[in-house]
Every structure is written in C-alpha cells, then in structure tokens.
Amino acid sequence: MEYVVIQSINALVFAVILLMSGLGLTVVMSLMNFINLAHGSLVLLGSYVAVFWLAIGAPWYLAFPAAFLSGAVAGAVLDRFPFRLFYARTHLMQVLLTFGLSVVFADLMRWGFGAGVATPRLPDVLRGVVFILDTPFPVYRLFVLGAGALLALGLWYLFDRTIWGAVVRACVVDRGAVESLGINTQHVFTLVLALACGLGALSGALGSGIMAAYPGLDEEVLILAFIVVVVGGLGSFSGLALSSLVLGFAMTFSKMIDPEFSNLMSLGAAAAILIVRPNGLVAPVTRQV
Amino acid sequence: MKPFAPLAALAALAALPLLGVPDYHLRLIAEVLIYGVAVMSLDLLIGFGGLVSLGHAAFFGVGAYAAALFATHVSAEILLVVPVAVLSAMAAALVMGALVVRSANLFLLILTLLLSQMVWEVVFRWRAVTGGADGFRGIPELALTLPGGHLALGGPVALYALAALLAVAATVLARSFIEAPAGRALIGTREQPLRMTALGYSVPRIRLTAFVVSAAIAGAAGALYPFVNQYVGPQVAHWTTSASLFIMLVLGGVATLYGGYVGAAIYLGFQTYISSYTERWQLVIGLLFVATVLFVPGGLGRSLKSLAASFRPQGSGAAVAGAEKRRVP
Predict the structure, then answer these.
(1) Strand partners, B143
(2) B14-33, pLDDT tens digit by residue?
(3) B282 and A106 in contact by Cβ < 8 A?
(4) Where are the domains of chain B?
(5) Is the separation of the CB atoms in B41 and B261 below 8 Å?
C-alpha cells in the first residue's frame, strides 16, 4: 500500500514535469498556431543555466528566474529571426525550420557546455528527504510538484482570466480586429513566444535536479513534450493536464509492473489513445468545410 | 521528364566501377543509393500523400533485421533474402498503416513516431534474437545460385551493383506507382481528401496502399543495408533515423522522387567528409538544413534540376520545372 502511494506521488511529479515541458509548446501552438520543435533546446538551455548558476554559488532561489530569463531572451531573439517569417506558413514548414534549428542548437550546446552529464549542486534546503508513510521521499521532488502545479495554475489564470490573455486569444481569432483597436499584435506575439521559451527553460531548470543536464536531453524532452501535447489534443490546457496525468501514471506504473518493457507499454498506451481518439483526448471543436 | 536525364544517371551508375573508383568510395555510394531508396519511399508518403510520417525507420529497420536474420539462420540466397525483407516490411506497414490512416497532420506524425518507437523497443530489448543494443554481426555474404554454380556477392563491386540495381528498380516502381491510378488518387487525397471521399474513393484504403508500397521499397533498401555495412544495430529502427531520412528528403526536394538520392548524397557526404575535419558536422548539416528551408524550400535537387534546365534550349525543361513547382507543399 505504501509503495503504491509513493509511486503515485512519483507519478504526479513526473506528470508535472511533463506538464511543464508541454506548457511552452502548447502556448505557442494554441495561441500562435506555431510549432516550435526547438523547444527541447530551450529546456536544455534552462537546465544548463541552472546547473552553472548553482555551481558558482549564487543564491539558489535566483537560479530559476535566471533560467527563465535566458529562455525568454532566446525566444525574443528567435522571434525576430527567423520565426516571424514562418508564423503564417504551413505546419510542415514550421516543423522543418524549427527541427533544423534544434539540430544546430543541440550541437552548439554540446560545444559550449561539454558532452558530459552536468548535475546541479542543490542547496541544503532542497536536498534532504521527508517521510511519507514512513518511506523516505526526496524533498526536491515535492518542490518540483508544488512549483509546477503553481506555474500551470498561474498560466491558466493569465490566459483565461486576465485582459492580457484575452488580447492574446483575440489575436488568434482575428488579428486584424485586434490591430484596429490600436494594439500592436507583433509585440503580443513576441511576448508570447518569449514567455513560452522562458517557461521551457524554467521547466528545464526545475527538472535538472531530477534528470540532470546532458546532450540528448533536449531530444528526449521534446519528444515526450510533443507526445503529451498531441495526445492531449493540441493546444488546450485541460487536455494537456489530462494527458500529462495519464502518461505520467502510465510511465511510472508500467515501470513498476515490468521495468524491461515499461517503455513499450507506455508508448503503447499513448498510441492506443491516439488510435481510439485520432484528435487527442480533448479535441477543440472545429468546423470542417 | 525527358528520357535524357534517367539515361545519363544509368550510364553514370554503370560506369562508376569501371572507372576505377576506390572500394571505399564504392561502399559510400552504395550506402547513398540505399538511403536514397529509403528516402524516395518516404517521399511517396510525405511528398505525394501528404502523410508526414516520422516512423519510416521502422520499415527500413524491419527489412534490415529480417534480411540479416534470414541470411544468418536460413539462407543467404539473395532471391530469398530480399523478398523476405520486403514482405516483413509490408506486413509491418499493413499493421501500422491500418492503425494510423484515420489520423492526420501532427497526430499522424506523433502516432507514427510512437508506433515506430515500439518497434525499436522490441528490437532493442529482444536480445536473444536481435542482439539488443550491441546489434548483429557476422552476417554471411549474399549469394546467388545460378544453374552454373554459386555466385558470392560480398565484394564492394558486387554490393555496389546490387545497390545500383535496387535504386533503378525502386525508382521505376515508385514512378509507375505515381503515374498509376492508385498514385494519382493518392495525390488527390493529399490535395482534397473530402472531395475524394465525395467522388467515392476510400481515402483510408488509398493511404494504406501508399503505406504498404512505400514500406515495400523501404524494406528492400533495408534488406541490402546489413550486407553493405556488415553490421545492423537497433539504431536503424530508431526515430532519429526517421528524422535523418526526413532531413535528406527536404534537402533533396519533397515530391520529386530523385530528390531522395540528392539528399542522401549531401547528407552522407557531409557526414563522411566533414566529420574527418571537424566534430561539428551536425552543426554544418543543421545550418545547411535551416538555410535550405529558408532560402530553397523546394529542395536542392529541384534547384539543381532547374539549373540544368536553364542551359537547355527551347525552355521545355523550364516547363517541367514549373509543373513540378506546384507540388511543393
């Protein structure tokens, strides 16, 4: 029984990591209709920034804002060139462009940060364990769980409940109408992309305490995030949250059943969802003409 | 296309070993041809069917493992090995195709990725049969039993000739598929799936056919791969191989067929030659890829072709290039 509870908490932690890495993707996908396969690179960038920040002994709690900022700045730059040229183009062209960029960034980061595994030196506050039902559980995982849940809630509030979010959503529906209200939609898109990239980097920083940072992590994260976003139904917060939970639990508990074939089982679970529901768990209502 | 270009390509293929090209280069060219065939088969799906699949390595990998296992345990007779590999890949495509034909766009991309990764997991974990992460070595030489005796096909020239033969056969097959009613219908489903349904076509069935034909060609390419490399590892079925095939396709030109060979030549050429100068060959490939997407979205193969056409009188070549431009997605 204790074992199942602990594994459930682990599954929740993993679901939150999936959710966080999927958030940035889903924001640009749903709000800007842009597919950013370079997202994994930004996640890895955030991980490296956090690892190096913690290594130089600066205040640990600033590592996460630093990672967010690095991602946001990278996003703002990428928005200028070349993403802006591709916002109005087909998904396939966006996929090609950003996939190519992710190959470039992966090699640049291997060059700059080395090919080894970089583990962060966590502060003492986050290092210990707490006892849940007499079983030790790492504090850091609980920290990630709380931070990720807060982040997702905050983001949902921002886009769903504030006037700023309304402007962004309006840009998606009718850019011209928003322009006619005197709002510079290009700035809105830049901000959204910077925010999404910052979120990616932040999720990388939070995840680095569990997964460390190494070349190739960008691809792994990207594929996982992409699977979660697509299984969730492309670009709805509720779908993303639901699919993170489903896949987080599927991956954790399949490891419990049989570590050898756990990946096969969780891949199969994700594939089964897409086969039964070809438009994802929560499909946005669209009209086909 | 004028008959001139294919004839010139055939002549060049036939002449290469006679010109005293070193064995090492023959092997590289054989690999380019094999990857080119795989990319061309992916082009049938992506370029002509609009089915952006990121699971093509599964078919290539199934063909490669089927050929290697059959040659090791049963017989290295080429007339058996290649059909076995092709049939295995087609069987995989029947299953995978039947599961994915209802999906479209990004959903299709992710679903093919998931299913092909499942194939990879099986290959990677089933150590007793596939050798797991270490892969599979000690594959016997291919052989051809003739009425007069036994012909071993292990040398670089023989393998090159097999790859060239494969490339010619696969190109003819792919082109006739595109020209055939089934291929025309496939292009129709790419452009207007709803209208095709209204006309009475079964879109899922057309797409399934495309998957099976494409996998048959990819499986044939996979069949030769272990013999040219003298090794087959789980990497051939991994999604990163699908991604590489995808890169080659875009570099060469989507919806051209011949672009597959151009893309494979550029990619493998860069990999081979630049990696001996610098470790950063992936950076170079990535930048080349981004530059292609930004500046030559039709692919380098297509621009090479229109360059060649511009030297030809009467402008008939330009008309061909113009007609093909419409196919750029």
Answers:
(1) B77, B152
(2) 777 777 778 888 889 999 99
(3) yes
(4) 12-237
(5) no
